[in-house]
Amino acid sequence: MHLHVLGCSGSDLPGYNLTSFLINKTILLDAGSVTSSMPLASQAEVQEILITHAHLDHIKDILFLADNLIELVARNEHGAVRVRGLAPVLESIRTHLLNDTIWPDFTVLPTFSNPVLTYAQLDPGVWVDMAGLRVVTIPVNHATAASGYLLLNPASGRHFAFTGDTGPTDRWWTFLNELPFDLENLIIEASFPNAMEELALLSRHLTPKLLRAELNKLHTRPKIYISHMKSTFSTEIQEQLHQALDGYMFHLLRDGEDIFF
Ligand SMILES: [Zn+2]
Ligand SMILES: [Zn+2]
To answer: Residue 145 Cα, ligand 1 centroid: separation in angstroms?
Structure first.
């Protein structure tokens, strides 16, 4: 499985892109920085968008991707892109974003029968096949509704899980502990430094210390990939991760890098 990091930052600043991963060129996992991070030809390869939650830093480029693809769809050179997520997440996007006020409703454009976007609800814990992969989503603790994802290549058994944004949570870890295989790769957030634990808990994010407490809920030790650091604190967070992740293999994700699971 090929994961290209379009963006993995918790802050929108020059040189820091918001959360978005491209899987095997056709599946977007969150859409915080898509249209500014890849050329139109690559954007046109996208068929699926998996959304963790409806915060703007994870969804905003759904808008601009739809705008970029509409001509291709109108010429029947591109099918509808499926936007997938939990029902309340899709409802938030439908109501507050693609509502014909903030942005056109691309689920009825260019025509009702041939739209740029369609919504596809995912139910927690129910595996779905897409683009040769098996995918499942499990609720985490963030925003009105939020979920992490597990993507599995059934042919090779290779896989990774991505929490999205989350504070301390339980159901997610229970699910991973009950898998019929040991989790090998985990992308997880570390948004704030330890000194900001109160804000982290209020906004339902993790610090390095909270992250370690979460990992202690897991019965295995996957390789850890860190995302969503607030860039202002990234040096401090990195220093604290070295201590917090003692005993783990870990890697700080960088915008633009390629990872092969
Ligand atoms: Zn968020
Ligand atoms: Zn976020």
So the answer is: 10
Boundaries of every domain in the chain: 2-260
Residue 10 Cα to ligand 2 midpoint, Å, equals 6
Fold annotation for 2-260: Metallo-beta-lactamase; Chain A (3.60.15)
- Please write the tens of the pLDDT for every residue from 171-197: 999 999 999 999 999 999 999 999 999
Reduced to 3 states, what is the DSSP secondary structure of residue 47? coil
Ligand 1 centroid – CA 78 distance (Å): 30
Q: Cβ(205)–Cβ(165) under 8 Å?
A: yes
- Exposed / middle / buried, residue 147 (Cβ in 10 Å: 0-12, 13-18, 19+): buried
| 155 Cα: distance to centroid of ligand 1 (angstroms) | 33
Distance 57 CA to ligand 2 centre (A): 5
Side by side, the strands of the sheet bearing 133-139 are: 128-130, 133-139, 147-152, 159-162, 185-189, 223-227, 250-252
Distance 76 CA to ligand 1 centre (A): 35
Mean pLDDT, range 35-43, rounded to an integer: 96
| 210-224 average pLDDT score | 98
Q: Which helix (H) or strand (E) holds 71?
A: helix 56-74
Sheet with 258-260: list strands edge to edge: 117-121, 81-85, 48-50, 27-29, 20-23, 2-7, 258-260
CA distance 73 to 75: 5
